[in-house]
Amino acid sequence: MQKFIDYLSGLAKLSPQVKSAIESKLIWQEFPKKHVLIKELSLCNRLYFIEEGLARVFYLKDGKEITDWFCSEGMLVGPVVRNFPQKEGPHAVELIESSKVSSIHFDDLQELFDTHHEVERMGRILAIQAVLFIQNRLDSLQFESAQQRYENLLKTYPSIIEKAPLGYIASYLGITQVTLSRIRGSLNRPARNSQDKIC
Amino acid sequence: MQKFIDYLSGLAKLSPQVKSAIESKLIWQEFPKKHVLIKELSLCNRLYFIEEGLARVFYLKDGKEITDWFCSEGMLVGPVVRNFPQKEGPHAVELIESSKVSSIHFDDLQELFDTHHEVERMGRILAIQAVLFIQNRLDSLQFESAQQRYENLLKTYPSIIEKAPLGYIASYLGITQVTLSRIRGSLNRPARNSQDKIC
DNA sequence: CGCCGAGTTGAACTGAATCAAGAAACGTGG
DNA sequence: CCACGTTTCTTGATTCAGTTCAACTCGGCG
Q1: How far apart, in whole angstroms, are the C-alpha atoms of residue A122 and residue A13?
Q2: Among A123, A126, B48, B67, which is disulfide-ready with B168 (CB 3.0 to 4.6 Å)?
Q3: Per-residue pLDDT reduced to its tens digit, B155-171
Q4: Would you call A122 helix, strand, or coil by DSSP?
Q5: Minimal CA–CA distance to B137: which of A79, A64, A135, A143?
Q6: Cα torsion for A74, A78, A84, A87, to the nearest 10°?
């Protein structure tokens, strides 16, 4: 719970009384692996913060599950990211690992926005961060090859690659399982030339 | 100038005194075609609103100009979109047509954020809109073919296609001029089958 | 033991990039 | 106003990354 507050006050300065106002609205929960944290983002009325664990945000596209986000420790999930007012499609959030989460009701958040200028500012900065984050993904999708994108993910979020199954990662990267498998293969094989004697 | 205020108050309710506080900070300018409105987004200290005309935001990538945004009437350009604090690369903004713009200094904007909760909220909502906008582009880049993307642009912003040269549009869509030219060709040709006698 | 989902591998196919050469349009200066 | 070079656009041939379809492997589990 403290982590959540710390995260938020890292975005914008929050006075002690605002912090405790936020804190009084938070709840803390622990859920097992595969728990469905949010069934449909558009109907979801809580904003979650992953204290520990790993979740994935996904949706159905032509009958296939598309992962469009992994939420690891210290990240937010909820209607803020994809949905404003309450529009947009049926994105769901499922836990990949058993996880500890803090959350706040959207109505409470809205009230905090109304009553505290500081919170509103925090919300603005949060949204701007989201812009920058997505901008990054856009650039990587536009200019990098599948392999480069995989390597970047490997660099920035190695934990995701260890924990999430291949198919999820592939759809997050915007490629097929098959391609991702080949990339992995080609990433391992070249090493042999120098050291191993396999032949 | 009024358009700018109207646009902003369309995002969040602004009281008359806040409106006039904003208005007092605005300046209005007119520039000819090809005028460089912003040389480097990262150094830019004004937020512009296109009242009339058309601009493009672009940057250099491996020696090539990449257009990453067209700003037509009723849109904002400036450090808000791509740059927060003052980081990020050398994005520039050039006018494609002669244009009329309103603008506000970033320091003034910051002051308005500080002094008026309403303005802060407006800023938050603006950022969220940017998130949704980019999210859309991301989805279209991930799932749509070059042709679909072109057709969508044609539907949503036909004016851009009329006014901007091919190369700009292509790099905005994330494809080459060559491909875009072929798409155009294939979009015209099939019509012949039904009506014309060319053979 | 055989089934099942997850991952790997092969072969054929495809959308778009690249390279390269023309054609059209667009100033700019004589 | 025409001749010129320059940029913008079109078209063809080739290449390549990544998809699709399909078969096959492997570890786990009823």
Answers
A1: 8
A2: B67
A3: 999 988 988 999 999 99
A4: helix
A5: A135
A6: 150
Q: Which nucleotide is nearest to B147 (CA to C1')?
A: C15
pTM: 0.88
In this prediction, residue A109 has a pLDDT band, given cuts at 50, 70 and 90, of very high
Burial of A178 (0-12, 13-18, 19+ CB in 10 A): exposed
pLDDT digits (tens, 9 = 90+) for B147-156: 999 999 999 9
Question: What distance separates the 2 farthest-apart alpha carbons in chain B?
Answer: 71
With the C-alpha atoms ordered A177, A179, A181, A183, is the resulting torsion angle positive or negative?
Answer: negative
Within residues 135-154 of protein chain A, the ones with CB less than 7 A from nucleic strand D are 145-147
Are B176 and B167 within 8 A, CB to CB? no
CA–CA distance, B184 with B179 (Å, rounded to integer): 9
User: Is residue B140 less than 8 Å (CB to CB) from chain A?
Assistant: no
Chain B residue numbers with beta carbons less than 8 Å from the beta carbon of A142 are 141, 174
Q: Is B121 an 8 Å CB contact of chain A?
A: yes
C-alpha–C-alpha distance, residues A77 and A96, integer Å: 14
Residue listed under structure tokens 């904002």: B76
